[in-house]
Amino acid sequence: MHKTKKLSLTMKVLIGMTLGIIVGLTINLLALNTAGSFTNIYIVDGAFHVLGKMFINALKMLVVPLVFFSLICGVCGIGNIKTLGRVGSKSFALYILTTAIAIALAITLATATGIGEGMELHASSEFSTNVAPPLTDVLINIIPTNPVKAMANGDMLPLIFYSILTGISVLMVGRKASSLIEMAEIANEVMMKMVNIVMSVAPYAVFVLIAKAIAELGLDLLGQLAGYVLVLVSALLLHLFVTLMITLKLFSGLSPRIFLAKIRDAQVFAFSTSSSNATIPVTLKTLIERMGVNNSIASFTVPFGATINMDGTAIMQGVATVFIANIYGVDLAITDYIIVILMSVLASIGTAGVPSVGLVMLSMVFAQVGLPIEGIGLVLGVDRLMDMLRTAVNVSGDAAVSSIVAKSENKLDISIYNDPDAGLSSIDQTLHINQTAEMELAATLKKTHEQS
Ligand code: ASP
Fold first, then answer.
1. Is position 446 within any domain?
2. Domain around 340
3. Which candidate, 41, 122, 176, 336, has a CA 20 to 30 Å from the CA of 314?
4. Separation of 183 CA from ligand 1 center, angstroms?
5. Residue 397, domain CATH
6. Atom of ligand 1 at shortest distance to CA of 306?
């Protein structure tokens, strides 16, 4: 029987994204989204809003159990505490290094172009912000007083800490705990299947998320802040295509071309959800199935990176600081720039990868160098769109560092990495229920039932 080639999920997601941009732009340009209009009530704030939020909830729903079980498996897979420490320190060092380079690049580019000089802008809105937690609190709160609460709140660092400690303890118990390891492995496999189920609706979800964002934002705001947007986008692209790719090639020898082709899925999800945390399931799946990174490394580096590594966000801090300083005519000394770099790196460690957290970090940076906090109001109008872009860069940074660490630990299957079709699945394959497995399960259940 002749079989037509099915479109891969990645392809469908990209089609969803393109259609979302077209529909969103059409709604915006034809001004169909005015308050109280049919399109506004039933489509943009109705169907698009509800379906989009449902999808983001579904992604977030996966994060805690996925991180918990895959980290236990990861720790048991690594098998000894020394290697674990090495993997931890390598990824931490690389995350900090890439973030510091990112912000230095942003400051250089913004200063060289002199954005904001001689510009008279009025704040687009009043801005008040939460404060990012001080570093002392971040350190203390790595250890949860109640792991269940940390899980319920989705607090990533305490969750990572508790899961690693569980994994280490299971290892220390040894043979007696083997069924526990097996259980964690099975639970991890079940979670990965759940990721597949959620991902199967991704093309539609990406469509509604993008269409809603573009319908609401349009592109005209971008024009008003053209200088800021241009420098920011150039710095983001430079970092993604040059800094990260040179780092990848230099430290691992892996092909940047293949990396860029394969990371697209995770980038689209990061772009659509504006959240590195919500993208964790997709980043993990991409690294493990498409790039051949062993779960023992990815399970650790991905959630860790989503929390502490924010290259794109750091770039925004750098560009925004120079921009606002120029607008208000504040002269920043070289020491101020160093403070900006340090603050951004520290702030990215202490804040989670959720939408708009970059603004919170920015207020912290501004307070340190004495820039008026209300200056943030100036860039607020374009921030939603910029958040989408920088989150895609954040996630790419997480994936690049994960690949480097995995390669250096001999935990990257190069044949999977180099195979362009590895891990590509059509939706039918993704949702395939294995009948043999089903029958086996039924037989086992029957046997257990008879025995009892
Ligand atoms: N939304 C970003 C993230 O989740 C953080 C930010 O820049 O606001 O990675």
1. no
2. 9-429
3. 122
4. 34
5. 1.10.3860.10
6. 9
